[in-house]
UniProtKB/TrEMBL annotation:
This is Transcriptional regulator, LacI family. Residues 2-48 form the HTH lacI-type domain. PROSITE patterns: HTH_LACI_1 (PS00356), HTH_LACI_2 (PS50932). One of its GO terms (molecular function) is transcription cis-regulatory region binding.
Length: 342
């Protein structure tokens, strides 16, 4: 059962104010919007007067969020991108007295999607097929898809801005005199309800790269390589780039782990970074500052992205939000020694 403290925390007012509002204290004066918000939250959380609804602990399913992780725990814990995202989710949930549970992971062989009906909201990492999304929304209408780089029609989304960031990278390189620019990335996976990839599609960073090159009449320099998000495959792709007759002056790499493979390939080929070729990547993990040369990369605050998803979940639980919301978390390009003007 939700407590007065739960309602106060979510409404952003004191427990004393909640108590006086819910008890219709005629001597208590407060903004009518705030009064209405407190009453609405109390209704959503099925608050009942006359019982000792005190203390931060609660078992009300309306105050719980299901978290469905995309990858296995070992991979996500060892990846700073996801580790920070999950830290943000847990910290923000604790702040609002919301309970986070992981009923299953996408990769689990046996998944009971109907369990999501027992939660006030659900946060699912990654993109799913339209059919899967529809079925999940029928179970829990407060579902949020987290860490996607595209818009999904009719869904609540907390997305990164990697599409826009790709355009910004290319514009920056263009202003620095680069024209012959290559791209190394991977395919995007769209999962079905079974948790398995239903199909792959071009990552929107690659789509953005190809469109940008065409728009700037640089089709003759288009070189896009699928490296399956691995350093080893990126090394192979960069080895192919090193053998091109007209060597690119810059390469955009879709993740920092792949950039490590690119660094090694160019070193093995006797190609100097950045004198011969500039490199810009995505993720901006801490190790970038210790590479030689230091790696330019796009940073996105995934901890804040996780917190944003929880705040949206809270609003979906407690407010009457009639339209699906898309929240874009913006990134920052940090230029370092791996890029120079031409």
């Amino acid at each position: 059962m939700a407590s007065i403290r739960d309602i106060a925390r979510i409404a952003g007012v004191s427990p004393a104010s909640v108590s006086r509002i819910l008890n219709n204290d005629p001597s208590f004066h407060i903004n009518e919007d705030t009064r209405g918000r407190v009453i609405e939250i109390a209704k959503h959380l099925h608050y009942k007067k006359g019982k000792r609804n005190v203390g931060p602990k609660q078992t009300d399913p309306n105050l719980s969020i299901a978290l469905i992780m995309r990858y296995n725990k070992a991979r996500e814990i060892n990846d700073p991108y996801f580790l920070k995202m999950h830290n943000g989710i847990n910290e923000e949930a604790k702040k609002w007295h919301l309970r986070i549970e992981q009923p299953f992971k996408l990769e689990d062989p046996n998944k009971e999607w109907n369990e999501l009906a027992n939660f006030g909201s659900a946060i699912i990492e990654g993109e799913m097929t339209p059919a899967a999304i529809k079925q999940i929304q029928n179970i829990n209408s407060n579902v949020i898809f987290l860490d996607v780089n595209t818009n999904i029609y009719g869904c609540n989304i907390v997305r990164n801005d990697f599409i826009e960031a790709t355009t910004y990278i290319l514009d920056t390189l263009y202003e620095m005199g680069h024209r012959n620019i290559a791209y190394i990335g991977g395919k995007s996976t769209v999962n079905g309800l079974d948790g398995k990839p239903a199909y792959e599609k071009d990552d929107l960073r690659e789509t953005g790269y190809l469109s940008w090159m065409k728009l700037h009449n640089l089709d003759q320099y288009c070189h896009a390589y699928n490296a399956n998000w691995s350093a080893e495959d990126a090394l192979a792709a960069a080895t192919k780039i090193a053998k091109l007759k007209d060597l690119p002056t810059a390469v955009v790499v879709a993740s920092d782990p792949m950039a490590l493979g690119v660094y090694k390939a160019f070193k093995d080929a006797g190609i100097n970074i950045p004198q011969d070729i500039s490199i810009i990547s995505f993720d901006d993990v801490d190790i970038n500052r210790y590479l030689t040369p230091t790696l330019s990369s796009v940073y996105i605050d995934t901890e804040e992205m996780g917190k944003t998803a929880v705040r949206l979940a809270k609003d979906l639980i407690t407010e009457k939000i009639k339209i699906p919301l898309t929240i874009t978390c913006h990134s920052q390009l940090n230029l370092r020694d791996s890029v120079i003007k031409r």
